[in-house]
Design brief:
Radius of gyration: 25 Å
Order of helices and strands: HHH
Helix content: over 70%
Distance between the termini: 70 Å
Low-confidence stretches: none
Largest sheet: none
Length: about 70
């Protein structure tokens, strides 16, 4: 019974929250606030950081493999 009531409460709350919007004209929140480019820039920086880390790690592993085979 408690599980049924909690599910029903969650559905009612989700329906109530679904109708609310941050902007009046329906634009995307990040575009409306002018933050879209900031989000994209952060994602690009993180992606470049991961690629550089993997490239450096590959170089170190290759050096260790070369030392071990000699």
């Amino acid at each position: 019974m408690i599980r049924f009531l909690s599910t029903l409460l969650a559905l009612v709350l989700m329906q109530d929250l679904n109708g609310q919007s941050m902007t009046g004209n329906g634009d995307d929140f990040f575009q409306a606030m002018g933050k879209m480019y900031v989000v994209v820039a952060i994602i690009v920086v993180i992606f470049i950081g991961i690629i550089l880390y993997l490239w450096r790690l590959d170089r170190k592993i290759s050096q260790l493999e070369n030392k071990q085979s000699k």
